[in-house]
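ok trying again, last paste got cut off:
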Amino acid sequence: MHNAQLPMEGKSRSSGVTMTTPQRLSDRSAERGSNEQIKRLLKRFGLRTSLIRLKVLDALLKAAEENRNLGVRGVHSQLLGLDIPLSFLSVREVLKRLCSEGVVILNPDKTYCLHPDAVAVLQADG
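nice, full thing came through this time. structure:
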């Protein structure tokens, strides 16, 4: 499944918890789109590429670049805002799977962010 990178509309839903993302990561994702990076990330963690994983991780990556974390509802809302019709339950299950595989972290406030190991993989790409 190859999709063109869709522009991400920033939502101003901040949980109060922030994750610092190095500028290099932000610059690279803006320059060449993050789909290829995310595909390599999934492969590195032994996961198959799927549209829903690409979109969920892209939403989390965009949120990290803006120093914010998203909960399930935030990710779901962001995807609906981009006319990506995924169910809330599907988004929740993908986030749970990404958590169990160590790609993302569930924070105490029920928001998700990229695991430092995933950030390191994305930064090493290039």
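cool. The CA atoms of residues 56 and 104 lie 11 Å apart. The chain has one domain: 32-124.
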